């Protein structure tokens, strides 16, 4: 999938597309980057090719509202597994 290739070339070390098992109409794209700061830098340097690709992917979205974007941060707590 070209979108995942784009994510990897932009620094993601893990990425994928997942289907919601409770609702197969919901798909989730996820990717992991080194830090929140690196993710913010990604937003500032989106190439035109990547912007065009993201627009093509967005065309598959259905519904009146834009897709929900959520950001999850890893929390490393000393002494906790």
TrEMBL record:
Taxonomic superkingdom: Bacteria
InterPro entries in alphabetical order: TM_effector
Database matches in Pfam families: MFS_3
Keyword terms: Cell membrane, Membrane, Transmembrane, Transport
UniProt KW Transmembrane keyword: yes
Protein name, UniProt field: Transmembrane secretion effector
Protein species of origin: Phyllobacterium bourgognense
């Amino acid at each position: 999938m070209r979108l995942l290739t784009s994510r990897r070339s932009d620094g993601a070390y893990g990425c994928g597309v997942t289907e919601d098992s409770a609702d197969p109409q919901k798909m989730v794209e996820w990717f992991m980057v080194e830090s929140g700061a690196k993710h913010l830098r990604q937003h500032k340097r989106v190439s035109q090719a990547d912007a065009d690709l993201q627009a093509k992917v967005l065309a598959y979205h259905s519904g009146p509202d834009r897709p929900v974007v959520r950001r999850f941060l890893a929390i490393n707590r000393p002494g906790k597994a």
